[in-house]
Amino acid sequence: MADRIAVILGGTGMVGANMAQLLDKVGGWDVTIVSRRPPQFETRARHVECDMSDPADCAVALGQLTQVTHIFWTGHATGTRWVDKASRDTDLFRNAMTSILPGASRLEHVSLLQGSKYYGRHLGPFKTPAKESDARHFPPNFYYTQEDLLKELARGKRWSYSLMRPHIVCGYARTDINLPKPIAVYATLCKKLGLPLRFPGPEAAFRAIHCASDVELLNKGMLWAATTPAAANEAFNMVNGDHFRWQYLWPRIAEYFELENGGVQQIDLELMMADKEELWNEIVQEHGLLPTPFSEAANWAFANYAFAPTWDIMLDNTKARKYGFQEFVDSEDMFIRIFDSFRQQRFIP
Which residues 6+ apart lie within 8 Å of 5 measured at CB? Predict the structure, then answer.
């Protein structure tokens, strides 16, 4: 048995999956992935099937994880109104934690994944660059209720915790909440239609300042915080370390897909993509691509959400650097690298 035993709660999403693969790569870890569905990616981790919305299921499935040393929470409730997420997501976290903790005598650390909505990024303009010490916004916010529960559970215990706050996590996975994915599909459709690549969000969003988090950088940061005593019981913004404006990044994306940069033309992607299934299927057949149903090819509602902010979104990651995490990623290069991976996977031509 390895000295370090990790349990990844919600481990089949992009962050959890990449976390499992990172621990496989660094070695010295036994890993268990907890989710309703088995992982669809290569990993040495074992899988425990569990519906974390069901306390009884958690008690049976998770009560056996008595040797765990590190817990990584990467799950969230889907298909839920924002006002309901505070209770639903906190219940998921509570059900899992209260089932594991009584027997987890070796536990050293719990990593809780949060995000930029902690600062009210979803509500409108907020103080930038956002720092981990900034005041909370007017509730509800499930990040707050989960964090408060975690701190309550940790009170008087020997184990520590970390709070990780990325923004727009991007990676190689073809999962729903992954912005490079709808960009790639949108560009592919534009090329088939002989159209320039136009930015589909508002003009002000095109010119505002944004940031992003490479999933590999996020996972490295989660591992660093979970294994660095000096980082115990702290929150860390975990972004690439640079900022960008779509008005300067968009031409590079257009060039990658061999398209004319069309500037800005705001459209509702969810609405305008409603009739594009046949066109996508034609592209898949023409280029011999991985047979991906159009309903799974991109989450257009998420793309609308990601492109919508007309205000600056800047997270300050100085604190992580001060504490010793020195990793960084060039965001422009990140997008191109991920598009390359989509081509290698035969997801896009």
Answer: 29, 30, 31, 32, 67, 68, 69, 70, 106
Please tell me the distance from the alpha carbon of residue 284 to that of residue 280, in angstroms, as a whole number: 6
Q: Are 220 and 22 in contact (CB under 8 A)?
A: yes
| 139 and 125 inside one domain | yes
Of 242, 197, 207, give the one whose Cα is nearest residue 333.
242
Which residues 6+ apart lie within 8 Å of 175 measured at CB? 13, 14, 17, 181
Residues 175, 199 share a domain: yes
Distance CA 184, CA 338 (A): 9
Which pTM was predicted? Answer: 0.96
Quote the number of domains for the chain: 2
Q: Residue 78: what pLDDT? A: 75
Determine the structural domain holding residue 150 and report its residue range: 4-168+212-237
Predicted confidence (pLDDT) at residue 320 exceeds the cutoff of 70: yes
Q: Measuring CA to CA, which residue among 248, 259, 120 is closest to residue 188?
A: 259
CB 144 within 8 A of CB 114: no
Name the amino acid, one letter, at 189: L
Record the tokens describing residue 345, joined without a space. 């996977």
**In this structure, how many other beta carbons lie within 10 angstroms of the beta carbon of residue 60?**
12
In a shared domain, residues 288 and 144: no
End-to-end CA distance of the chain: 44
Instruction: Please state, in angstroms and as integers, the Cα–Cα distance from residue 287 to each residue in 257, 273, 331, 349, following that order.
Output: 15, 20, 29, 6
- Taking the CA of residue 339 as centre, how many other CA atoms within 13 Å lie in the half-sphere pointing to its CB? 21
pLDDT grade for 4, boundaries at 50, 70 and 90: very high
How do residues 237-292 score in pLDDT, each as one tens digit? 999 999 999 999 999 999 999 999 999 999 999 999 999 999 999 999 999 999 99
Same domain, 155 and 256: no
pLDDT tens by residue, 59-115? 999 999 999 999 999 998 876 788 889 999 999 999 999 999 999 999 999 999 999
